[in-house]
Backbone:
């Protein structure tokens, strides 16, 4: 099904017969086709002023000449308006093709083979050890998760990487604090929060006792030197953090192929630093080793401190090589807040200066900041919302509503989880990713209007209609002339354009395009549903067409929700 193709071929054929020697191809025409701003202007339009140079005629003349020669059963009529030739598709024909296409795709409407044989690495979530998972981490987690599904849907092999922040002097301090003031039981029980408390206590105490800082550093040195005790404690800190995070990942349905974090690269940086040296890219600056990036309008990138210690970017350089050598990626994406713009520009530039062509496949997928009720997040000042709390509250609220509205639902807990989590994920993924988000409880927990639950509900509504139809039995050949009304056609057009949105979402690494398109489909179908009866006694053929439309809507909403990481319950 590709009605643009149909129009393009017909118009190219018309051009060939109207203008002698005209070599306009269907592909050329296709690239020029526009979607009119209002549907009364047609389903598609050809701006003929774009042809007047080649054909040496005024646009309205071209439009009329083409209109006269148009010969295509799928096009009901053409209209010349100004320099435009507007096409009106035969509505029944359109319905048949679109619904047929969607149902034939069987849940894969919009999928492609574009990425076949290609690999994309996605670095997302990338949490820090001994820190709690808060709403500031939601975007990287969900954008990354969604992009992974979008790329897979387009044939790519996708590798999800959680680049853990698991190295740094703060961990020495934490071990020191743990040894002094805590016990295994306390940390096991308190989880990440217990570690956070230890760290806070350490910093408080260090204000009056400078010796403490030295002790902390000494513990970090032990970690670096591979001291078994230090590493045992640290690895256990890691386990506790990951166990906490796993609860959130499980709720969100998020997973990773690799948890290789910063510490994984401890023994992999030396060769990269050596290569930088060999390629004369390292220069000394106040005892430290840096890459000078002045020519590219950037400050120097610090690679080795004067004491030889490595940095965040040194680890990222090693990680980039490792990913290239291990996964042979075609693309490597970093879903990280825009505050790290400079870091990634420096990273990519250095890799390029080292002569790595594959660096061209790297991209920083940035996103906006999250504030909380109008103010910046601050753990210290208590202006923070932990993701687990947020999800649990959303689930509890969904549970309440279900209890009130569908007391007989069978799997209430399961549906409450799907809906509660869906509301939060939708909140995060419905705006352009670079837009800052101001987190407000009432908005994140909103279930009306343009929200996750609204879209999920529409999906469940379609499922319910289809269940009833199945019970009623009786199938017929569909009569497509019964879905030619405006509401059905608006819905169909949105289904037809869904694949294009998926493609754009991948090109721009922008899941919100899919979130919004899926919402539009839900809105259009609801409008249709309220203005038309789906099952009409004595009209088996019309009923069949409306049911098939409903099934197509259900399939595409489910796909859209899946691609942005939201589940689609069949009953709500
Ligand atoms: N852990 C880092 C942070 O919280 C994000 C890491 C992003 N990935 C990377 N390869 N640098 O800021």
Residues:
């Amino acid at each position: 099904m590709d009605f643009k193709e149909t129009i393009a071929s017909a118009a190219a054929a018309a051009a060939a017969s109207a203008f002698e020697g005209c070599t306009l191809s269907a592909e050329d025409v296709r690239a020029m086709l526009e979607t009119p701003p209002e549907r009364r202007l047609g389903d598609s339009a050809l701006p003929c002023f774009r042809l007047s140079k080649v054909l040496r005629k005024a646009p309205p003349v071209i439009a009329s000449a083409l209109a006269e020669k148009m010969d295509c059963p799928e096009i009901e009529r053409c209209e010349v308006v100004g320099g435009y030739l507007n096409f009106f598709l035969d509505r029944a024909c359109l319905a048949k093709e679109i619904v047929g296409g969607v149902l034939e795709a069987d849940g894969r409407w919009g999928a492609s083979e574009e990425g076949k044989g290609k690999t994309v690495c996605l670095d997302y979530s990338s949490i820090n050890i001994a820190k709690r998972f808060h709403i500031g981490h939601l975007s990287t987690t969900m954008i990354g998760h969604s992009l992974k599904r979008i790329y897979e849907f387009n044939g790519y092999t996708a590798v999800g990487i959680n680049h853990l922040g698991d190295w740094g002097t703060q961990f020495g301090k934490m071990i020191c604090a743990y040894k002094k003031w805590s016990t295994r039981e306390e940390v096991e029980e308190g989880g990440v929060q217990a570690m956070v408390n230890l760290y806070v206590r350490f910093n408080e105490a260090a204000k009056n006792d400078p010796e403490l800082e030295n002790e902390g550093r000494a513990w970090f040195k032990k970690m670096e030197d591979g001291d078994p005790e230090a590493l045992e404690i640290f690895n256990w800190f890691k386990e506790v953090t990951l166990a906490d995070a796993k609860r959130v990942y499980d709720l969100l349905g998020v997973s990773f192929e690799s948890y290789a974090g910063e510490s994984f690269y401890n023994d992999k940086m030396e060769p990269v630093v050596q290569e930088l040296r060999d390629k004369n890219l390292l220069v000394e600056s106040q005892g430290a080793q840096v890459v000078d990036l002045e020519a590219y309008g950037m400050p120097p990138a610090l690679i080795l401190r004067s004491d030889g210690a490595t940095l965040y970017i040194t680890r990222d350089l090693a990680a980039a090589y490792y990913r290239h050598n291990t996964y042979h990626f075609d693309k490597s994406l970093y879903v990280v807040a825009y505050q790290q713009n400079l870091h990634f520009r420096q990273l990519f530039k250095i890799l390029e200066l080292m002569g790595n062509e594959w660096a061209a496949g790297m991209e920083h997928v940035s996103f906006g900041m999250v504030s909380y009720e109008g103010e910046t997040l601050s753990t210290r000042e208590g202006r923070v919302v932990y993701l687990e709390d947020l999800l649990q509250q959303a689930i509890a609220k969904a549970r309440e509503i279900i209890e009130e509205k569908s007391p007989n639902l069978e799997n209430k807990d399961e549906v409450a989880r799907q809906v509660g989590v869906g509301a939060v994920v939708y909140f995060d993924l419905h705006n352009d990713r670079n837009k800052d988000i101001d987190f407000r409880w009432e908005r994140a927990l909103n279930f009306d209007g343009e929200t996750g639950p609204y879209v999920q509900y529409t999906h469940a509504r379609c499922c319910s209609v289809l269940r009833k139809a199945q019970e009623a039995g009786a199938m017929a050949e569909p009569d497509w002339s019964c879905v030619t009304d405006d509401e059905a056609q608006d819905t169909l057009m949105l289904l037809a354009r869904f694949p294009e949105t998926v493609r754009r979402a991948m090109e721009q690494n922008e899941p919100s395009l899919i979130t919004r398109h899926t919402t539009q489909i839900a809105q259009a179908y609801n409008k249709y549903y309220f203005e038309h009866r789906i099952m009409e006694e004595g009209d088996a053929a019309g009923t069949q067409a409306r049911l098939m439309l409903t099934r197509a809507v259900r399939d595409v909403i489910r796909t859209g929700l899946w691609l942005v990481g939201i589940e689609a319950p069949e009953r709500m």
Summary: Residues 119-365 form a domain with the Rossmann fold fold (CATH 3.40.50.620). The chain has 20 helices and 13 strands. The pocket of arginine is lined by residues 123, 126, 128, 163, 165, 316, 319, 334, 336 (CB under 6 Å). The mean pLDDT is 94.
